[in-house]
Design a protein that fits this description.
Blueprint (H helix, E strand, L loop, with lengths): L1 H86 L10 H4 L24 H8 L1
């Protein structure tokens, strides 16, 4: 009877040991898979970010190339204009005299807000006022 008890005890011990080992293996595997799954998710987010960043850089590069081509055209036009300006003869400036500068302005060219006004009891013609100002 004692040997049967020992055999049953060894069988129970082996069964308990197998059950504990299976539970531990399952727990370790579950935790490892969870950690790896989180890393895979983070790697996916990083890949998405890098893809979006690459697209943004490609768009910026294309815009920069278009701007560069436009500026090259502007430079060519400005260069042509500058060469025309350098090669054309100088235009003489009109000679100004004091008489032409000091000429009174016609009454209709005086801006509205700057037209001189006098009280009604001292009425002068606008032309007389301009001649007095000179």
């Amino acid at each position: 009877m004692q040997s049967t008890t020992l055999v049953v005890a060894f069988l129970l011990k082996a069964d308990i040991t197998n059950h504990i080992l299976d539970t531990l293996v399952e727990a370790v595997a579950t935790k490892t898979i969870d950690k790896i799954g989180a890393l895979v998710d983070k790697l996916g987010l990083t890949a998405d970010f890098l893809t979006a960043n690459d697209m943004k850089q490609a768009e910026s590069t294309l815009k920069l190339q278009a701007t560069s081509a436009t500026l090259e055209g502007v430079y060519t036009l400005l260069d042509a204009l500058a060469s025309k300006l350098v090669s054309s003869p100088p235009v003489p400036a009109p000679s100004l005299s004091w008489a032409s500068v000091a000429m009174p302005m016609p009454p209709n060219l005086i801006p509205f807000g700057l037209q001189p006004t006098l009280p009604s009891n001292n009425q002068l013609l606008l032309q007389e006022m301009l001649s007095v100002q000179q």
